[in-house]
Amino acid sequence: MSSVPMETMSSALPPLLSCCQVCESQTGCPHVVKEMMLGTRDEFLYWECAECGCLSLTAVPEHLEKYYPDTYYSLKTREPKFTRKVRDFKIGRAHV
Ligand SMILES: [Zn+2]
Fold first, then answer.
1. pLDDT tens digits for 26-53?
2. Segments making up each domain of the chain, as ranges
3. Where is pLDDT greater, at 28 or 17?
4. 56 within 8 A of 49, measured Cβ to Cβ
5. CA 85, CA 57: separation in Å to the nearest integer?
6. Ligand 1 centre and the CA of 70: distance in Å?
7. What is the 3-state secondary structure (H, E, C) of the chain?
8. 4, 29 contact by CB (below 8 A)
9. Residue 59, Cα to own-chain centre: how many angstroms?
10. What gap in Å lies between CA 91 and CA 96, rounded to an integer?
11. Residue of 11, 41, 40 whose CA lies nearest to 30
């Protein structure tokens, strides 16, 4: 994935997608993600910051409980190994 300057894609983006929620950088790229785990196939717009690598949801859905049933995996067991791998990958890529 390459980072695309905000300006070049602004025509295709909704107005609320403005900057990183963490560092407020305006450099990054949007990702449209379909919810597949529960099978709702609802689409969500995420923003990947080119500065800090943070992935943030640009608009929190109205009915969050719909996406977090009692059986939701993060409420049961955590997977630190996987989380660490993702983090290392991101950090490694940021310095290439
Ligand atoms: Zn950021």
1. 899 888 989 988 899 999 888 899 999 9
2. 4-69
3. 28
4. yes
5. 21
6. 31
7. CCCCCHHHHHHHCCCCCCCCCCCCCCCEEEEEEECCCCCCCCEEEEEEECCCCCEEECCCCCCHHHCCCCCCHHHCCCCHHHHHHHHHHHHHHHCC
8. yes
9. 11
10. 9
11. 11
Can you tell me which residue has the tokens 């390459």?
A: 2
**Mean pLDDT calculated for residue range 10-30:** 71
Give the tokens for residue 16: 């609320």
C-alpha 23/C-alpha 8 separation (Å) is: 21
Ligand 1 centroid, distance to 37 Cα (angstroms): 26
Rounded Cα gap, residues 74 and 94, in angstroms:
27
**The tokens of 12 are what?**
């295709």
Within 8 A by CB and 6+ apart from 87, the residues are: none
Ligand 1 centroid vs 56 CA: distance in angstroms? 9
Q: How far is the CA of 21 from the centre of ligand 1 (A)?
A: 7
